[in-house]
């Protein structure tokens, strides 16, 4: 229950915000704030004092200083496409959402330095498009790219399909502009490949999900545009064979390899069932399939010739049971479509349990064998939907109810116990329980459970040092 | 003057260290400690209470706990090849050097995960060799690789010649084992490409030069071995032309380009003067030369063909005035030798002023023009020795006394004023005054001078939070 003194403090804060950035940019009507208080997957719904929509880093800093003065928690939000509830306020109605969407300028592009300087609210697809116009590639790519923002990508250190070659969002960032928890503006917008002049503040704010300060702009790396991107599909007997095949591919293709995605046969069957227009690509069934992508700086012909030599070698060695190299861009696109339809087919099939995990690449086969066996023992007939970025050890390890079993009842009964089996197995293999989605509010307890006390203590020390009032996205990442 | 109470505290500490790691591994005789108290360039000579040589992370942790108990500053040291005095104790004789050299085990190599787990004291060349045995490449490479250690490389975020393609030491590290300033052991030895479960502690310790905690082991990334490395030399009219040529090369070669080193004509002439057996590679003089390296996953022939096409194109466009592609490995080696003999030739020519700086790649031409003009105005006849890793914007921007002028007198008179000209120019171009060597004790004042107060304050906050007693390499990086 909000006390009168509290209500007055909230009221004064909101008024001061209006005076600072204009009343039109301070939303308090529930109709206006609704889109900002529910997360993208609709797992979390909070309430908010106000949604603040500043248009510059200076305004963000001024708002944070007001928050400090009035002791208000700030929840930074980008495109609101996060998968861990990291941008959703709690239900108290005492937190303020700070939307970065109006900080949406591309401040600079420097093709000779291979950098682009963008504000936090720029949509990922717009960064990609601007880079392409300048004859460069911005390689970060993920399902939400049409609505997620670069600030959100940085705050969660987003992954996606290009990590194998280009790294996570962290590896694509050279410099940041930050509003600290004290409302100071730090211009760390350096576009340097080498700079050893003190502590790495940049990487501390990246992946911190807005709990240490607010990212308002960034200098991101660009890469040369490849002349051609060509894909191929390979059919294999097991994840173990896929690992051997990955090593062979890396030897043949080196840095030209930009995608190596594993899909179990059940994944492809699900796609075929719910999207019958998508053709199963092989003549016969195979236990596993791999989607490969080469990004070639020479030509499409060169990439295809490389694929042909690779597949010939892999077939001879018995690593691969069948293979198709895309004949043209349309077919390349079709192969990616298969991969991208797996989550959609899964949704059609019914509610399911999702786990975004990573293990060392070399452990993937053992992880799949052991975890699958443990779940099968726990829930006979449970159907594993295993696919993901094998090249970086990141699996979307999802579990669907046994055939004919009610999905909702299955979730209610097994959600916790299956997650425990999966995460215990991840932990045994020295893996990560959140490979690319972050902790948000969804996985704090799990993270605290598996992390060593000394690491949790180090995290708490940093949080207390940089945000002593606990106003920056309180309740996320760390408690 | 050390007071009796102090002397007794020091004595008790050293005795406790002997009891913990064995008297043989606690050096106090000045003859034994001498190699540890002077830096590699002999710019700094300190004194020490004792040199501690633990053999395990557990022993390091125990020694740090003793340091906390007795309030003794610990100066971590690897191969003692640093260029900024970061591993040299001060002259008080009250600091203890902690050598990591006996932590020299390669704990694990995992070719399928493309990782190697090494202790801090392993020599860089040994990491390279072990990777090669396993058919992998560990791409970090620098002049001191025969004696520097991986722990020192991490503590200073070492750069070197492969950064353009493979990144700095930071980008090559996946996980760390750390002894905190409280003497706790954190096992962060993760070998994961994706892990978003909290704050990025790893990158905070990398590049912190031992001021926040001690790195005792690390998981480092490996890459596929290229099938061939081929080099070429190109002659150009200016640094501006070299920039255009870099963009063209990146378009042609994409990620196969692993080296792009600029050398002014004066650099090559110096090499020719002091090492006459090294042939000047072109028929005529040209203002600038670039050394290019391709690392090709196909073959030497493929790399050479790519170079031929590139050079033909660049000659046609008038970007390049002349070019030589190495015919074989011996000639590739000879081209690198030219580059590596520049610092040696400089030393032969006499004492000189060295600046390890970086600017955005696109600013290199303007930086060289403007800074050169300012120095020429300040000291007519001063000779610029400008060379370095153009591909990552990192120049070794060195200045030699005018012909016939006594080098020592030149240094005494102009060291400070020329550094100010160079660093002011770096600052105007949003560059770094220490690109790959770190701050150590050499550049703290300069860093404090150029950094924004808010950044210095953030660094101080982190230092105070993680090392509240200021025992971890006190006097380095931050004051």
Automatic annotation (TrEMBL), chains A, B:
It comes from the Bacteria. Residues 44-225 form the FAD-binding PCMH-type domain. Transmembrane segments: none annotated. PROSITE patterns: FAD_PCMH. Keywords: FAD, Flavoprotein, Oxidoreductase. Its EC number is 1.-.-.-. One of its GO terms (molecular function) is oxidoreductase activity. It is an enzyme of class 1 (oxidoreductase). Belongs to the FAD-binding oxidoreductase/transferase type 4 family. PANTHER family: BLL6224 PROTEIN (PTHR43716:SF2), D-2-HYDROXYGLUTARATE DEHYDROGENASE, MITOCHONDRIAL (PTHR43716). This is FAD-linked oxidoreductase.
């Amino acid at each position: 229950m909000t006390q009168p003194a509290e209500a007055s403090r909230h009221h004064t804060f909101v008024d001061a915000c209006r005076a600072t950035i204009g009343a039109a940019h301070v939303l308090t009507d529930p109709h206006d704030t609704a889109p900002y208080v529910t997360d993208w997957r609709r797992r979390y719904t909070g309430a908010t004092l106000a949604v603040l929509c500043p248009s510059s880093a200076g305004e963000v800093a001024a708002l944070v200083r007001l928050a400090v003065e009035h002791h208000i928690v700030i929840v930074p939000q980008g495109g609101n496409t996060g998968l861990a509830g990291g941008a959703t306020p709690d239900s108290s109605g005492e937190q303020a959402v700070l939307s970065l969407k109006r900080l949406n300028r591309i401040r600079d592009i420097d093709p000779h330095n291979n950098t682009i300087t963008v504000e936090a609210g720029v949509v990922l697809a717009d960064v990609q498009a601007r880079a392409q116009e300048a004859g460069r590639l911005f390689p970060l790519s993920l399902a939400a790219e049409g609505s997620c923002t670069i600030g959100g990508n940085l705050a969660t250190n987003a992954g996606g399909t290009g990590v194998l070659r280009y790294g996570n969002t962290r590896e694509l960032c050279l410099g940041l502009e930050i509003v600290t928890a004290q409302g100071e503006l730090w211009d760390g917008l350096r576009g340097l490949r080498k700079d050893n002049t003190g502590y790495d503040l940049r990487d501390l704010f990246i992946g911190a999900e807005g709990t240490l300060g607010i990212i308002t702009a960034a200098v991101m790396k660009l890469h040369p545009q490849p002349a051609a991107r060509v894909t191929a599909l390979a059919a294999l007997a097991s994840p173990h064979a896929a690992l051997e095949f990955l090593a062979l591919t890396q030897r043949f293709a080196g840095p030209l390899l930009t995608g190596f995605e594993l899909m179990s046969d059940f994944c492809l069957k699900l796609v075929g069932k719910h999207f019958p227009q998508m053709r199963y690509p092989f003549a016969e069934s195979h236990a596993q399939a791999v989607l490969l992508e080469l990004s070639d700086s020479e030509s499409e012909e060169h990439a295809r010739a490389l694929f042909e030599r690779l597949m010939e070698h892999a077939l001879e060695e018995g690593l691969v049971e069948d293979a198709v190299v895309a004949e043209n861009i349309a077919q390349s696109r079709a192969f990616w479509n298969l991969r991208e339809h797996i989550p959609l087919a899964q949704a059609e099939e019914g509610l399911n349990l999702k786990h975004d995990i990573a293990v060392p690449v070399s452990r993937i086969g053992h992880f799949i064998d052991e975890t699958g066996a443990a779940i099968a023992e726990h829930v006979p007939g449970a159907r594993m939907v295993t696919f993901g970025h094998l090249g970086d050890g990141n699996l979307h390890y999802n579990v669907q109810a046994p055939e004919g079993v009610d999905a909702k009842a299955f979730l209610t009964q097994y959600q916790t116990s299956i997650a425990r089996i999966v995460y215990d197995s991840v932990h045994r293999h020295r893996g990560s329980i959140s490979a690319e989605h972050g902790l948000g509010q969804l996985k704090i307890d799990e993270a605290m459970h598996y992390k060593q006390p000394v690491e949790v203590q180090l995290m708490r020390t940093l949080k207390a040092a940089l945000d002593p009032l606990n106003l920056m996205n309180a309740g996320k990442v760390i408690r």
